[in-house]
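[job 0417] fold request received: GNAT family N-acetyltransferase
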Amino acid sequence: MIRAATVEDVAEIRAMIRELAEYERAVEQARATEEQLREALFGEHPAAFALIAEDDETGEAVGYALWFPRFSTWTGTRGMHLEDLYVRPYARGGGYGKALIASLAAVCERHGYERFEWWVLAWNEPAIDFYKSLGVEFLDEWTVCRLSGEPLRELAAQVPADLGQTPAL
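[job 0417] inference complete; emitting structure tokens
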């Protein structure tokens, strides 16, 4: 039911990303191309990893989870950030979401990741209820910050050109 994504899954992953963006009322923001996803997931230095949920009978991809490692200065260990968890509407309630989350928890355990974190939209009550059923801790005292677009460019322009070598991630 759950397997690691392969390069052959890129088109289907992109399609599900668009479906998720539509559900989240932000389809215009989902601009990633198949080429970008192929490089990010399967290039020389992957930026992220993905799991696919398949229907056992049809073999059809019914969901995916996309994640990447993070690091905690407090624990001194890596953790996992879940960027996307999506199950197609007709397959919801079939255990795919829980199977994807459980598979990711197993990856955390296998690699010694002490934290497994993600964001959820405040209005997405079905997802919040699902996460609560898993025992998820909600960190209400934290606020997500984002710098992008013109403010990001303006701030970056304030740094001298001789910043020096920065790592390519």
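[job 0417] notes: The CA atoms of residues 127 and 133 lie 10 Å apart. Helices lie at 10-23, 34-42, 96-111, 125-133, 149-156.
[job 0417] exit 0
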